[in-house]
Amino acid sequence: MGLYLLLGALLLLLLLLLGAVLVGFPGRPSRSPFQEDARRPPEPLVTDKEARKRVLKQGFSRDKVPDHLDAIVIGSGYGGLAVAVMLSKAGKRVLVLEQHGKAGGCCHTFNEKGYEFDVGIHYVGQMEEGSILRMMIDQLTDGQLQWAKMDSPFDTLILGDPDVGKRYYLHSGETDYIQGLKKQFPGEEAAIDRFVTLVKKVSKGCPLLAILKMLPIPLVMFLHRSGLLALVCPFFRMLSKNVLNVVAEITSNADLKAVFTYIFPTYGVIPSKASFSLHAILVEHFFGGGWYPQGGSSEIVFQSIHIIQRAGGIVLTKAPVQSILVDPQGKACGVSVKKGQDVVNIYAPVVISDAGIFNTYEKLLPNELKVLPEIQNQLSMMHHGIGGFCVFIGLKGSKEELGFEAKNYYIYQHNDLCEAFVTYLNCSRETAPKKIPLLYIGSSSAKDPLWEKRYPGKSTLIILAVTKYEWFEEWKEEKVTKRGLEYESVKNSFVDSIMDTVLKVYPHIKDKIEHVSAGTPLTNCHYIASPRGEMYGAEHSISRLQVEVTTTIRPQTPVPNLYLTGQDVFLGGFPGALHGALICASAVLQRNLYVDLVRLRRKMKATSNKKEN
Fold first, then answer.
1. What is the mean pLDDT of residues 55-65?
2. Cβ atoms within 10 Å of 225's Cβ, excluding its own
3. CATH architecture for segment(s) 31-109+294-382+553-612
4. Which of 18, 487, 507, 543 could share a disulfide with 483, CB 3.0–4.6 Å?
5. Is the peptide bond before 456 cis (omega within 30 degrees of 0)?
6. Range with the lowest mean pLDDT among 13-27, 262-276, 294-308, 597-611?
7. What pLDDT shows up at residue 21?
8. How far apart are CA 16 and CA 24, in angstroms?
9. CA–CA distance, 464 with 490 (Å, rounded to integer)
10. Domain ranges of the chain
11. In 10 A of CB 99, how many CB atoms?
Protein backbone atom coordinates (compact mmCIF):
# COMPACT_ATOMS: atom_id res chain seq x y z
CA MET A 1 0.00 0.00 0.00
CA GLY A 2 2.83 2.42 0.85
CA LEU A 3 4.54 1.70 -2.48
CA TYR A 4 1.25 2.22 -4.33
CA LEU A 5 0.78 5.58 -2.62
CA LEU A 6 4.30 6.62 -3.53
CA LEU A 7 3.94 5.59 -7.18
CA GLY A 8 0.56 7.27 -7.39
CA ALA A 9 1.94 10.47 -5.92
CA LEU A 10 4.90 10.47 -8.31
CA LEU A 11 2.67 9.82 -11.31
CA LEU A 12 0.24 12.55 -10.31
CA LEU A 13 3.06 15.01 -9.72
CA LEU A 14 4.54 14.21 -13.14
CA LEU A 15 1.22 14.70 -14.90
CA LEU A 16 0.48 17.94 -13.07
CA LEU A 17 3.92 19.33 -13.86
CA LEU A 18 3.37 18.42 -17.49
CA GLY A 19 0.01 20.14 -17.47
CA ALA A 20 1.40 23.17 -15.64
CA VAL A 21 3.93 23.71 -18.39
CA LEU A 22 1.91 22.74 -21.46
CA VAL A 23 -1.70 23.42 -20.36
CA GLY A 24 -2.93 22.15 -23.73
CA PHE A 25 -3.27 25.55 -25.42
CA PRO A 26 -2.71 25.62 -29.20
CA GLY A 27 -0.87 28.33 -31.06
CA ARG A 28 1.82 30.72 -30.03
CA PRO A 29 1.67 32.15 -26.49
CA SER A 30 1.29 35.89 -25.95
CA ARG A 31 3.53 38.09 -23.86
CA SER A 32 3.34 37.53 -20.11
CA PRO A 33 1.68 40.24 -18.02
CA PHE A 34 4.06 39.27 -15.20
CA GLN A 35 7.44 39.75 -16.87
CA GLU A 36 8.69 42.39 -14.43
CA ASP A 37 7.82 43.60 -10.96
CA ALA A 38 5.21 46.30 -11.62
CA ARG A 39 5.20 47.81 -8.14
CA ARG A 40 6.05 51.46 -7.67
CA PRO A 41 5.84 53.75 -4.63
CA PRO A 42 2.17 54.37 -3.74
CA GLU A 43 0.82 57.74 -4.79
CA PRO A 44 -1.50 59.78 -2.54
CA LEU A 45 -5.14 58.70 -2.51
CA VAL A 46 -7.21 60.62 -5.05
CA THR A 47 -10.13 62.08 -3.08
CA ASP A 48 -11.41 64.64 -5.59
CA LYS A 49 -14.90 63.40 -6.46
CA GLU A 50 -14.88 64.74 -10.01
CA ALA A 51 -11.51 63.13 -10.74
CA ARG A 52 -12.80 59.78 -9.47
CA LYS A 53 -16.04 60.16 -11.36
CA ARG A 54 -14.17 60.60 -14.64
CA VAL A 55 -12.57 57.20 -14.07
CA LEU A 56 -15.37 55.22 -12.42
CA LYS A 57 -18.38 56.66 -14.24
CA GLN A 58 -17.35 57.11 -17.85
CA GLY A 59 -20.63 56.63 -19.69
CA PHE A 60 -20.84 54.67 -22.92
CA SER A 61 -20.96 56.24 -26.37
CA ARG A 62 -19.83 54.78 -29.69
CA ASP A 63 -17.17 57.43 -30.23
CA LYS A 64 -15.41 56.44 -26.98
CA VAL A 65 -14.83 52.87 -28.15
CA PRO A 66 -11.16 52.41 -29.20
CA ASP A 67 -10.34 51.09 -32.66
CA HIS A 68 -8.66 47.73 -33.25
CA LEU A 69 -9.84 46.05 -30.05
CA ASP A 70 -8.21 42.79 -28.99
CA ALA A 71 -10.94 41.81 -26.53
CA ILE A 72 -14.29 42.87 -25.09
CA VAL A 73 -15.11 42.10 -21.45
CA ILE A 74 -18.76 42.02 -20.36
CA GLY A 75 -19.05 43.22 -16.75
CA SER A 76 -16.65 45.18 -14.54
CA GLY A 77 -16.73 43.03 -11.41
CA TYR A 78 -13.26 42.04 -10.29
CA GLY A 79 -13.34 38.91 -12.45
CA GLY A 80 -13.77 41.18 -15.47
CA LEU A 81 -11.41 43.95 -14.37
CA ALA A 82 -8.62 41.57 -13.38
CA VAL A 83 -8.66 39.71 -16.69
CA ALA A 84 -8.74 43.04 -18.53
CA VAL A 85 -5.73 44.25 -16.54
CA MET A 86 -3.77 41.08 -17.31
CA LEU A 87 -4.54 41.32 -21.02
CA SER A 88 -3.62 45.01 -20.94
CA LYS A 89 -0.28 44.21 -19.30
CA ALA A 90 0.28 41.68 -22.10
CA GLY A 91 -0.12 44.46 -24.67
CA LYS A 92 -3.78 43.96 -25.55
CA ARG A 93 -6.36 46.69 -26.09
CA VAL A 94 -9.45 45.84 -24.04
CA LEU A 95 -12.94 47.31 -23.80
CA VAL A 96 -14.84 46.64 -20.56
CA LEU A 97 -18.59 47.23 -20.65
CA GLU A 98 -20.58 47.74 -17.43
CA GLN A 99 -24.39 47.89 -17.40
CA HIS A 100 -24.52 49.92 -14.17
CA GLY A 101 -23.68 53.62 -13.96
CA LYS A 102 -20.53 52.95 -11.89
CA ALA A 103 -17.78 50.45 -12.59
CA GLY A 104 -16.79 47.71 -10.15
CA GLY A 105 -19.60 45.19 -9.70
CA CYS A 106 -19.34 43.97 -6.09
CA CYS A 107 -16.22 46.13 -5.69
CA HIS A 108 -18.08 49.37 -6.31
CA THR A 109 -19.20 51.74 -3.57
CA PHE A 110 -22.18 54.08 -3.59
CA ASN A 111 -23.00 57.33 -1.83
CA GLU A 112 -26.25 58.25 -0.12
CA LYS A 113 -26.91 61.30 2.02
CA GLY A 114 -23.20 62.03 2.27
CA TYR A 115 -22.20 58.49 3.30
CA GLU A 116 -20.18 55.94 1.33
CA PHE A 117 -21.11 52.26 1.51
CA ASP A 118 -19.28 49.23 0.16
CA VAL A 119 -21.25 46.52 -1.60
CA GLY A 120 -19.26 43.30 -1.58
CA ILE A 121 -15.72 43.68 -0.22
CA HIS A 122 -16.10 43.49 3.55
CA TYR A 123 -12.79 41.86 4.39
CA VAL A 124 -10.17 39.67 2.73
CA GLY A 125 -7.68 37.21 4.20
CA GLN A 126 -4.06 36.40 3.34
CA MET A 127 -3.09 39.97 2.45
CA GLU A 128 0.07 39.99 4.56
CA GLU A 129 3.29 41.07 2.86
CA GLY A 130 4.88 38.16 1.05
CA SER A 131 1.71 36.12 0.52
CA ILE A 132 0.98 34.94 -3.02
CA LEU A 133 -2.43 36.62 -2.97
CA ARG A 134 -0.89 39.95 -1.93
CA MET A 135 1.75 39.60 -4.64
CA MET A 136 -0.93 39.00 -7.28
CA ILE A 137 -2.93 42.06 -6.21
CA ASP A 138 0.21 44.20 -6.04
CA GLN A 139 1.12 43.26 -9.61
CA LEU A 140 -2.40 43.95 -10.87
CA THR A 141 -2.50 47.40 -9.25
CA ASP A 142 1.17 48.37 -9.73
CA GLY A 143 1.51 48.37 -5.94
CA GLN A 144 -0.90 51.30 -5.59
CA LEU A 145 -3.54 49.44 -3.57
CA GLN A 146 -2.73 49.35 0.14
CA TRP A 147 -4.35 47.09 2.73
CA ALA A 148 -5.16 47.77 6.38
CA LYS A 149 -4.99 44.94 8.92
CA MET A 150 -8.16 44.51 10.98
CA ASP A 151 -8.20 44.27 14.75
CA SER A 152 -7.75 41.01 16.60
CA PRO A 153 -10.10 39.36 17.27
CA PHE A 154 -11.30 40.07 13.73
CA ASP A 155 -14.56 38.10 14.01
CA THR A 156 -16.91 37.85 16.99
CA LEU A 157 -19.54 35.11 16.99
CA ILE A 158 -22.69 35.69 19.06
CA LEU A 159 -24.98 32.70 19.67
CA GLY A 160 -28.42 33.87 20.74
CA ASP A 161 -29.79 37.28 21.67
CA PRO A 162 -26.91 39.83 21.77
CA ASP A 163 -28.03 40.91 25.25
CA VAL A 164 -27.55 37.48 26.82
CA GLY A 165 -26.05 35.21 24.15
CA LYS A 166 -22.63 33.61 24.34
CA ARG A 167 -19.76 35.35 22.56
CA TYR A 168 -16.77 33.68 20.98
CA TYR A 169 -13.75 35.39 19.45
CA LEU A 170 -11.57 34.51 16.46
CA HIS A 171 -8.05 35.91 16.75
CA SER A 172 -5.58 36.85 14.02
CA GLY A 173 -2.56 34.62 13.46
CA GLU A 174 -2.64 30.85 13.50
CA THR A 175 -1.09 30.53 16.96
CA ASP A 176 -3.41 33.10 18.54
CA TYR A 177 -6.35 31.65 16.60
CA ILE A 178 -5.72 28.21 18.10
CA GLN A 179 -4.83 29.37 21.60
CA GLY A 180 -7.82 31.69 21.66
CA LEU A 181 -10.18 28.81 20.89
CA LYS A 182 -8.54 26.58 23.50
CA LYS A 183 -9.00 29.22 26.21
CA GLN A 184 -12.67 29.56 25.29
CA PHE A 185 -13.24 25.79 25.12
CA PRO A 186 -11.27 24.12 27.94
CA GLY A 187 -11.29 20.37 27.56
CA GLU A 188 -11.63 20.60 23.76
CA GLU A 189 -7.93 21.13 23.01
CA ALA A 190 -7.56 17.85 21.10
CA ALA A 191 -10.64 18.57 18.99
CA ILE A 192 -9.36 22.06 18.11
CA ASP A 193 -5.96 20.69 17.11
CA ARG A 194 -7.60 17.99 15.02
CA PHE A 195 -9.84 20.51 13.25
CA VAL A 196 -6.98 22.90 12.45
CA THR A 197 -4.74 20.06 11.24
CA LEU A 198 -7.48 18.79 8.94
CA VAL A 199 -8.22 22.27 7.59
CA LYS A 200 -4.55 22.85 6.77
CA LYS A 201 -4.13 19.44 5.17
CA VAL A 202 -7.26 19.72 2.99
CA SER A 203 -6.86 23.36 1.97
CA LYS A 204 -3.42 22.65 0.48
CA GLY A 205 -5.22 21.03 -2.45
CA CYS A 206 -6.89 24.27 -3.52
CA PRO A 207 -4.28 25.08 -6.23
CA LEU A 208 -5.18 21.79 -7.92
CA LEU A 209 -8.62 23.23 -8.67
CA ALA A 210 -6.98 25.74 -10.98
CA ILE A 211 -4.74 23.10 -12.55
CA LEU A 212 -7.74 20.86 -13.30
CA LYS A 213 -9.27 23.70 -15.30
CA MET A 214 -6.09 24.00 -17.36
CA LEU A 215 -5.24 20.36 -17.98
CA PRO A 216 -6.83 18.55 -20.95
CA ILE A 217 -10.17 17.11 -19.85
CA PRO A 218 -9.33 13.48 -20.79
CA LEU A 219 -6.24 13.66 -18.57
CA VAL A 220 -8.26 15.00 -15.64
CA MET A 221 -10.87 12.30 -16.06
CA PHE A 222 -8.15 9.64 -16.05
CA LEU A 223 -6.66 11.04 -12.84
CA HIS A 224 -10.10 11.13 -11.25
CA ARG A 225 -11.50 7.79 -12.38
CA SER A 226 -8.28 5.96 -11.64
CA GLY A 227 -8.56 7.21 -8.06
CA LEU A 228 -5.19 8.97 -8.16
CA LEU A 229 -6.57 12.39 -7.26
CA ALA A 230 -8.35 11.14 -4.15
CA LEU A 231 -5.47 8.80 -3.30
CA VAL A 232 -2.78 11.43 -3.03
CA CYS A 233 -4.75 14.58 -2.17
CA PRO A 234 -7.02 14.97 0.92
CA PHE A 235 -8.81 17.86 -0.81
CA PHE A 236 -10.37 15.46 -3.32
CA ARG A 237 -11.06 12.80 -0.71
CA MET A 238 -13.13 15.29 1.28
CA LEU A 239 -15.04 16.83 -1.64
CA SER A 240 -18.24 14.86 -1.02
CA LYS A 241 -18.16 15.07 2.77
CA ASN A 242 -20.35 17.80 4.18
CA VAL A 243 -19.10 20.22 6.81
CA LEU A 244 -21.68 19.26 9.42
CA ASN A 245 -20.77 15.57 9.43
CA VAL A 246 -17.02 16.18 9.47
CA VAL A 247 -17.26 18.58 12.41
CA ALA A 248 -19.57 16.20 14.29
CA GLU A 249 -16.85 13.54 14.07
CA ILE A 250 -14.40 15.95 15.71
CA THR A 251 -16.46 17.25 18.64
CA SER A 252 -19.87 16.87 20.29
CA ASN A 253 -19.73 20.37 21.83
CA ALA A 254 -22.57 22.27 20.11
CA ASP A 255 -21.02 25.71 20.57
CA LEU A 256 -17.63 24.57 19.29
CA LYS A 257 -19.31 23.04 16.24
CA ALA A 258 -20.91 26.43 15.64
CA VAL A 259 -17.51 28.14 15.90
CA PHE A 260 -15.96 25.64 13.49
CA THR A 261 -18.70 26.34 10.92
CA TYR A 262 -19.80 29.96 11.57
CA ILE A 263 -18.16 31.41 8.47
CA PHE A 264 -20.21 29.42 5.93
CA PRO A 265 -22.37 32.44 4.90
CA THR A 266 -19.32 33.80 3.06
CA TYR A 267 -19.90 31.08 0.47
CA GLY A 268 -23.66 30.83 0.98
CA VAL A 269 -24.37 27.13 1.63
CA ILE A 270 -25.37 25.67 5.01
CA PRO A 271 -22.92 23.19 6.64
CA SER A 272 -25.12 20.15 5.93
CA LYS A 273 -24.93 20.87 2.17
CA ALA A 274 -21.44 22.35 1.84
CA SER A 275 -18.26 20.49 0.94
CA PHE A 276 -15.68 20.36 3.70
CA SER A 277 -12.98 20.94 1.08
CA LEU A 278 -14.46 24.35 0.26
CA HIS A 279 -14.96 25.14 3.93
CA ALA A 280 -11.34 24.30 4.69
CA ILE A 281 -10.15 26.76 2.03
CA LEU A 282 -12.13 29.56 3.65
CA VAL A 283 -11.18 28.79 7.26
CA GLU A 284 -7.49 28.61 6.35
CA HIS A 285 -7.84 31.82 4.34
CA PHE A 286 -8.63 33.73 7.56
CA PHE A 287 -6.15 32.10 9.95
CA GLY A 288 -4.03 35.24 9.62
CA GLY A 289 -6.97 37.59 10.22
CA GLY A 290 -8.67 40.06 7.91
CA TRP A 291 -7.63 43.03 5.77
CA TYR A 292 -9.54 45.90 4.18
CA PRO A 293 -8.51 48.01 1.15
CA GLN A 294 -7.42 51.50 2.16
CA GLY A 295 -9.63 54.09 0.51
CA GLY A 296 -12.51 51.63 0.26
CA SER A 297 -13.27 48.84 -2.18
CA SER A 298 -13.74 51.24 -5.11
CA GLU A 299 -9.99 51.89 -4.91
CA ILE A 300 -9.52 48.39 -6.36
CA VAL A 301 -11.54 49.49 -9.38
CA PHE A 302 -9.91 52.92 -9.64
CA GLN A 303 -6.39 51.49 -9.80
CA SER A 304 -7.39 48.75 -12.26
CA ILE A 305 -8.95 51.14 -14.77
CA HIS A 306 -5.77 53.23 -15.01
CA ILE A 307 -3.82 50.19 -16.22
CA ILE A 308 -6.47 49.28 -18.80
CA GLN A 309 -6.46 52.85 -20.12
CA ARG A 310 -2.68 52.99 -20.27
CA ALA A 311 -2.72 50.12 -22.79
CA GLY A 312 -5.26 51.92 -25.00
CA GLY A 313 -8.35 50.26 -23.57
CA ILE A 314 -11.27 51.75 -21.66
CA VAL A 315 -13.99 50.90 -19.11
CA LEU A 316 -17.40 52.28 -20.04
CA THR A 317 -20.51 52.32 -17.85
CA LYS A 318 -24.22 52.49 -18.70
CA ALA A 319 -23.41 49.97 -21.40
CA PRO A 320 -25.87 47.07 -21.07
CA VAL A 321 -24.85 44.28 -23.42
CA GLN A 322 -27.91 42.91 -25.19
CA SER A 323 -26.32 39.96 -26.93
CA ILE A 324 -23.09 38.31 -27.96
CA LEU A 325 -22.51 38.51 -31.70
CA VAL A 326 -21.40 35.43 -33.66
CA ASP A 327 -20.12 35.10 -37.19
CA PRO A 328 -21.46 32.62 -39.80
CA GLN A 329 -19.09 29.95 -38.43
CA GLY A 330 -20.67 30.27 -34.96
CA LYS A 331 -17.66 32.03 -33.41
CA ALA A 332 -18.08 34.95 -31.00
CA CYS A 333 -17.01 38.15 -32.73
CA GLY A 334 -18.40 41.00 -30.64
CA VAL A 335 -21.37 42.33 -28.66
CA SER A 336 -24.39 44.53 -29.15
CA VAL A 337 -24.90 47.34 -26.64
CA LYS A 338 -28.14 49.19 -25.97
CA LYS A 339 -27.75 52.97 -26.14
CA GLY A 340 -31.07 54.67 -25.59
CA GLN A 341 -33.36 53.31 -28.29
CA ASP A 342 -30.44 52.28 -30.49
CA VAL A 343 -28.27 49.17 -30.53
CA VAL A 344 -24.55 49.55 -31.17
CA ASN A 345 -22.54 46.60 -32.47
CA ILE A 346 -18.88 46.38 -31.39
CA TYR A 347 -16.49 43.79 -32.76
CA ALA A 348 -13.40 42.06 -31.35
CA PRO A 349 -11.71 38.68 -31.89
CA VAL A 350 -12.20 37.70 -28.23
CA VAL A 351 -15.27 38.14 -26.01
CA ILE A 352 -15.00 37.49 -22.26
CA SER A 353 -18.03 37.41 -19.97
CA ASP A 354 -17.94 38.32 -16.29
CA ALA A 355 -21.74 38.34 -16.26
CA GLY A 356 -21.98 34.88 -14.72
CA ILE A 357 -22.77 31.59 -16.40
CA PHE A 358 -26.57 32.02 -16.25
CA ASN A 359 -26.64 35.51 -17.73
CA THR A 360 -24.09 34.57 -20.37
CA TYR A 361 -25.69 31.37 -21.58
CA GLU A 362 -29.38 32.10 -21.00
CA LYS A 363 -29.62 35.82 -21.85
CA LEU A 364 -26.71 36.86 -24.05
CA LEU A 365 -26.23 33.98 -26.48
CA PRO A 366 -28.27 33.81 -29.71
CA ASN A 367 -31.18 31.36 -29.51
CA GLU A 368 -29.53 28.82 -31.80
CA LEU A 369 -26.54 28.58 -29.44
CA LYS A 370 -28.50 28.48 -26.17
CA VAL A 371 -29.87 25.06 -27.08
CA LEU A 372 -26.50 23.47 -27.82
CA PRO A 373 -26.16 20.24 -25.78
CA GLU A 374 -22.79 21.41 -24.42
CA ILE A 375 -24.35 24.66 -23.17
CA GLN A 376 -27.33 22.92 -21.60
CA ASN A 377 -25.03 20.36 -19.96
CA GLN A 378 -23.01 23.10 -18.26
CA LEU A 379 -26.15 24.92 -17.11
CA SER A 380 -27.47 21.67 -15.61
CA MET A 381 -24.32 21.44 -13.47
CA MET A 382 -24.83 24.82 -11.82
CA HIS A 383 -27.58 26.17 -9.55
CA HIS A 384 -28.52 29.65 -8.43
CA GLY A 385 -27.05 30.85 -5.15
CA ILE A 386 -29.04 32.32 -2.27
CA GLY A 387 -30.19 35.94 -2.33
CA GLY A 388 -28.85 38.71 -0.15
CA PHE A 389 -30.49 41.41 1.96
CA CYS A 390 -28.41 44.43 3.01
CA VAL A 391 -28.99 47.32 5.41
CA PHE A 392 -26.80 50.42 5.18
CA ILE A 393 -26.58 52.78 8.17
CA GLY A 394 -24.99 56.23 8.22
CA LEU A 395 -24.13 57.71 11.62
CA LYS A 396 -22.91 61.00 13.01
CA GLY A 397 -19.61 60.59 14.86
CA SER A 398 -16.14 59.14 14.32
CA LYS A 399 -15.29 55.51 15.07
CA GLU A 400 -13.68 56.62 18.33
CA GLU A 401 -16.78 58.54 19.38
CA LEU A 402 -19.07 55.63 18.49
CA GLY A 403 -16.81 52.87 19.78
CA PHE A 404 -16.57 51.10 16.42
CA GLU A 405 -13.69 48.70 15.83
CA ALA A 406 -12.16 47.07 12.74
CA LYS A 407 -13.92 43.77 13.36
CA ASN A 408 -17.04 41.85 12.31
CA TYR A 409 -19.98 40.34 14.18
CA TYR A 410 -21.77 37.14 13.17
CA ILE A 411 -25.01 36.86 15.15
CA TYR A 412 -26.91 33.54 15.05
CA GLN A 413 -30.22 32.72 16.69
CA HIS A 414 -28.71 29.67 18.40
CA ASN A 415 -25.91 27.14 18.05
CA ASP A 416 -27.72 24.82 15.61
CA LEU A 417 -26.85 26.90 12.58
CA CYS A 418 -28.34 24.57 9.96
CA GLU A 419 -31.65 24.22 11.79
CA ALA A 420 -31.95 28.00 12.09
CA PHE A 421 -31.46 28.46 8.36
CA VAL A 422 -33.80 25.66 7.31
CA THR A 423 -36.57 26.99 9.58
CA TYR A 424 -36.12 30.51 8.19
CA LEU A 425 -36.12 29.49 4.53
CA ASN A 426 -39.31 27.46 5.07
CA CYS A 427 -41.11 30.51 6.47
CA SER A 428 -43.59 32.70 4.67
CA ARG A 429 -42.32 36.17 3.90
CA GLU A 430 -44.70 37.53 6.53
CA THR A 431 -43.14 35.50 9.34
CA ALA A 432 -39.56 35.40 8.03
CA PRO A 433 -38.38 38.77 9.44
CA LYS A 434 -38.68 37.45 12.98
CA LYS A 435 -36.77 34.28 12.11
CA ILE A 436 -33.66 35.72 10.42
CA PRO A 437 -30.99 33.13 11.34
CA LEU A 438 -27.89 35.26 10.85
CA LEU A 439 -26.78 38.86 10.74
CA TYR A 440 -23.31 39.93 9.68
CA ILE A 441 -22.36 43.40 10.95
CA GLY A 442 -19.26 45.28 9.84
CA SER A 443 -18.06 48.87 9.61
CA SER A 444 -16.01 49.91 6.58
CA SER A 445 -15.46 53.31 8.21
CA ALA A 446 -13.75 51.59 11.16
CA LYS A 447 -11.65 49.29 8.94
CA ASP A 448 -10.35 51.99 6.59
CA PRO A 449 -7.60 54.19 8.14
CA LEU A 450 -8.18 56.77 5.39
CA TRP A 451 -11.91 57.08 6.09
CA GLU A 452 -11.65 60.06 8.44
CA LYS A 453 -9.74 61.97 5.77
CA ARG A 454 -12.60 61.47 3.32
CA TYR A 455 -15.62 61.61 5.62
CA PRO A 456 -14.66 63.39 8.85
CA GLY A 457 -17.07 62.96 11.74
CA LYS A 458 -19.10 60.25 9.99
CA SER A 459 -19.31 56.48 10.31
CA THR A 460 -21.13 53.60 8.67
CA LEU A 461 -22.41 50.12 9.40
CA ILE A 462 -23.41 47.48 6.89
CA ILE A 463 -25.58 44.51 7.85
CA LEU A 464 -25.96 41.44 5.66
CA ALA A 465 -28.59 38.70 5.82
CA VAL A 466 -29.74 36.01 3.44
CA THR A 467 -33.21 35.98 1.98
CA LYS A 468 -35.28 34.16 -0.62
CA TYR A 469 -35.65 35.71 -4.05
CA GLU A 470 -39.21 34.37 -4.17
CA TRP A 471 -40.27 36.66 -1.29
CA PHE A 472 -39.67 39.68 -3.56
CA GLU A 473 -40.10 38.16 -7.02
CA GLU A 474 -43.55 39.63 -7.72
CA TRP A 475 -41.99 43.09 -8.05
CA LYS A 476 -39.18 42.03 -10.41
CA GLU A 477 -40.66 43.89 -13.39
CA GLU A 478 -41.08 47.15 -11.49
CA LYS A 479 -38.52 49.94 -11.78
CA VAL A 480 -35.95 50.40 -9.02
CA THR A 481 -37.09 52.88 -6.30
CA LYS A 482 -40.61 52.70 -7.79
CA ARG A 483 -41.84 49.30 -6.70
CA GLY A 484 -44.71 50.58 -4.61
CA LEU A 485 -45.89 50.70 -1.01
CA GLU A 486 -46.39 46.96 -0.55
CA TYR A 487 -42.81 46.23 -1.61
CA GLU A 488 -41.51 48.92 0.75
CA SER A 489 -43.64 47.48 3.54
CA VAL A 490 -42.20 43.98 3.06
CA LYS A 491 -38.67 45.37 2.83
CA ASN A 492 -39.14 47.50 5.95
CA SER A 493 -40.40 44.52 7.96
CA PHE A 494 -36.94 42.98 7.46
CA VAL A 495 -35.20 46.29 8.18
CA ASP A 496 -37.10 46.79 11.45
CA SER A 497 -36.24 43.32 12.69
CA ILE A 498 -32.59 43.75 11.73
CA MET A 499 -32.36 47.15 13.41
CA ASP A 500 -33.70 45.70 16.66
CA THR A 501 -30.71 43.35 16.76
CA VAL A 502 -28.20 45.99 15.67
CA LEU A 503 -29.26 48.28 18.52
CA LYS A 504 -28.66 45.48 20.98
CA VAL A 505 -25.07 45.23 19.79
CA TYR A 506 -24.64 49.02 19.67
CA PRO A 507 -27.32 50.43 22.05
CA HIS A 508 -25.55 53.81 22.24
CA ILE A 509 -25.92 54.64 18.51
CA LYS A 510 -29.70 55.09 18.44
CA ASP A 511 -29.54 58.89 18.53
CA LYS A 512 -26.58 59.01 16.13
CA ILE A 513 -28.32 57.39 13.18
CA GLU A 514 -28.83 59.82 10.30
CA HIS A 515 -29.54 57.47 7.40
CA VAL A 516 -30.87 53.95 6.87
CA SER A 517 -31.44 52.26 3.50
CA ALA A 518 -31.79 48.66 2.41
CA GLY A 519 -31.36 46.41 -0.60
CA THR A 520 -33.24 43.21 -1.44
CA PRO A 521 -32.37 40.52 -4.00
CA LEU A 522 -34.08 42.75 -6.58
CA THR A 523 -31.61 45.50 -5.70
CA ASN A 524 -28.77 43.11 -6.51
CA CYS A 525 -30.51 42.19 -9.76
CA HIS A 526 -30.65 45.83 -10.80
CA TYR A 527 -27.24 47.12 -9.75
CA ILE A 528 -24.96 44.12 -10.21
CA ALA A 529 -27.15 42.09 -12.60
CA SER A 530 -27.13 38.93 -10.48
CA PRO A 531 -29.95 36.78 -11.93
CA ARG A 532 -31.79 36.06 -8.65
CA GLY A 533 -30.04 38.50 -6.37
CA GLU A 534 -27.39 35.99 -5.30
CA MET A 535 -24.30 37.30 -3.55
CA TYR A 536 -21.64 34.80 -4.65
CA GLY A 537 -22.70 33.75 -8.13
CA ALA A 538 -23.72 30.15 -8.71
CA GLU A 539 -24.40 28.03 -5.63
CA HIS A 540 -21.32 26.53 -3.95
CA SER A 541 -22.93 23.16 -3.25
CA ILE A 542 -21.14 19.83 -2.93
CA SER A 543 -22.11 19.00 -6.50
CA ARG A 544 -20.37 22.11 -7.85
CA LEU A 545 -17.06 21.03 -6.29
CA GLN A 546 -17.09 17.60 -7.92
CA VAL A 547 -14.25 16.89 -10.34
CA GLU A 548 -16.56 16.48 -13.36
CA VAL A 549 -18.08 19.93 -12.78
CA THR A 550 -14.80 21.62 -11.88
CA THR A 551 -13.22 20.28 -15.05
CA THR A 552 -16.14 21.11 -17.34
CA ILE A 553 -16.81 24.66 -16.13
CA ARG A 554 -13.68 26.42 -17.36
CA PRO A 555 -12.99 29.68 -19.22
CA GLN A 556 -13.24 28.12 -22.67
CA THR A 557 -16.89 27.75 -23.67
CA PRO A 558 -18.57 25.64 -26.36
CA VAL A 559 -18.69 28.85 -28.43
CA PRO A 560 -15.27 29.52 -30.01
CA ASN A 561 -13.68 32.87 -28.97
CA LEU A 562 -16.12 33.24 -26.03
CA TYR A 563 -14.64 32.89 -22.55
CA LEU A 564 -15.95 33.00 -18.98
CA THR A 565 -14.23 34.71 -16.06
CA GLY A 566 -14.92 35.45 -12.40
CA GLN A 567 -16.62 33.61 -9.55
CA ASP A 568 -18.47 31.02 -11.62
CA VAL A 569 -15.23 29.83 -13.22
CA PHE A 570 -13.45 29.19 -9.91
CA LEU A 571 -15.00 29.98 -6.51
CA GLY A 572 -16.89 32.83 -4.88
CA GLY A 573 -15.63 35.99 -3.27
CA PHE A 574 -12.82 38.37 -4.17
CA PRO A 575 -10.00 35.77 -4.24
CA GLY A 576 -12.23 33.36 -6.17
CA ALA A 577 -13.01 36.00 -8.81
CA LEU A 578 -9.29 36.78 -9.08
CA HIS A 579 -8.35 33.16 -9.69
CA GLY A 580 -11.19 32.84 -12.20
CA ALA A 581 -9.68 35.80 -14.03
CA LEU A 582 -6.16 34.33 -13.86
CA ILE A 583 -7.32 31.04 -15.39
CA CYS A 584 -9.27 32.93 -18.05
CA ALA A 585 -6.32 35.15 -18.98
CA SER A 586 -4.14 32.03 -19.18
CA ALA A 587 -6.57 30.56 -21.72
CA VAL A 588 -6.82 33.74 -23.80
CA LEU A 589 -3.07 34.42 -23.78
CA GLN A 590 -2.26 30.73 -24.29
CA ARG A 591 0.21 30.56 -21.44
CA ASN A 592 0.10 29.40 -17.82
CA LEU A 593 0.13 32.61 -15.79
CA TYR A 594 0.58 30.70 -12.53
CA VAL A 595 3.98 29.58 -13.80
CA ASP A 596 4.75 33.19 -14.77
CA LEU A 597 3.82 34.36 -11.28
CA VAL A 598 6.07 31.77 -9.66
CA ARG A 599 8.97 32.87 -11.88
CA LEU A 600 8.36 36.51 -11.05
CA ARG A 601 8.17 35.74 -7.35
CA ARG A 602 11.54 34.00 -7.47
CA LYS A 603 12.99 36.92 -9.40
CA MET A 604 11.66 39.42 -6.85
CA LYS A 605 13.03 37.34 -3.98
CA ALA A 606 16.46 37.17 -5.61
CA THR A 607 16.45 40.94 -6.11
CA SER A 608 15.43 41.47 -2.49
CA ASN A 609 18.21 39.18 -1.25
CA LYS A 610 20.77 41.10 -3.33
CA LYS A 611 19.69 44.39 -1.78
CA GLU A 612 19.93 42.93 1.72
CA ASN A 613 23.43 41.66 1.05
1. 96
2. 11
3. 3-Layer(bba) Sandwich (3.50)
4. 487
5. no
6. 13-27
7. 46
8. 12
9. 17
10. 31-109+294-382+553-612, 151-289+384-528
11. 22
